[in-house]
Amino acid sequence: MRTIRLSRPALAIGVAAAGAVAAVGPAAYVLFFRRWCLTWGARDDEVAAKLPGDELLPDADLVTTRAVTVDAPPEAIWPWLVQMGSGRGGAYTYDWIENLFGLDMHSADEILPRYQDLRVGDELPMGPDRPGMAVKVLDPPRTLAVQLADQNWVWIFALLPDGESTRLISRNRIATAALPSVGRLFYTVFMEPGSLVMERKMLLGIKQRAERTAAAS
């Protein structure tokens, strides 16, 4: 039976985040580690910037802004974004973790033409029998923003030219006020570091695919 392992960088981040929380407690995590966790890879101006789609959930209780530099133009990145979703192009992260929760994610390694004609109002499926995320902002090849059916989660992707490269920014806006206090604590201490592990893999996965296709063309 094959043993499935996280990559060393991702495992190191996950272990470091979990270890920090366990060792120093939730208060220290919030004071010393949380900003790094919520803004991995993003510059201060990118964290502060207003992005199209922010207005969909202006009073979000939790905002994450993470980013990576892709050595490719926005046009080479855009096709990978619009084909995301369960039963489509996947999420370019750890499929085996996603599928532990029954999300049916299978990350594509090629651009899938049948999923490229995305339009406002279309829905990106998040898994069988799960609410999808409706496309709210579609400005190719600059911005894609989707919102969960219950309107408590907005996910924004922005592509910003940076010299000959592109900054790929992923922002999540989430409403957590309805959760009980124990639920909010669990979300902060465990879900936030976990989301970093998954989203870091996703951003690097898109980077790798876009750079490969850009070089080939």
Features of the shown structure:
globular, 217 residues, Alpha-D-Glucose-1,6-Bisphosphate, Chain A, domain 4, alpha+beta, single chain, 40% helix
Walkthrough of the structure:
- The chain has helices at 8-38, 44-48, 74-82, 95-100, 181-216, and strands spanning 62-70, 123-124, 133-139, 143-148, 153-162, 165-174.
- By secondary structure, the protein is an alpha+beta fold.
- The protein has one domain (8-216): 2-Layer Sandwich (Alpha-D-Glucose-1,6-Bisphosphate, Chain A, domain 4).
- A hairpin with a 4-residue loop joins strand 4 (143-148) and strand 5 (153-162).
- Residues 1-7 have low confidence and may be disordered.
Write the layout of secondary structure elements.
Elements: H1 8-38, H2 44-48, E1 62-70, H3 74-82, H4 95-100, E2 123-124, E3 133-139, E4 143-148, E5 153-162, E6 165-174, H5 181-216
Antiparallel strand pairs: 1-6, 2-3, 3-4, 4-5, 5-6
Helix pairs in contact: 1-5, 3-5
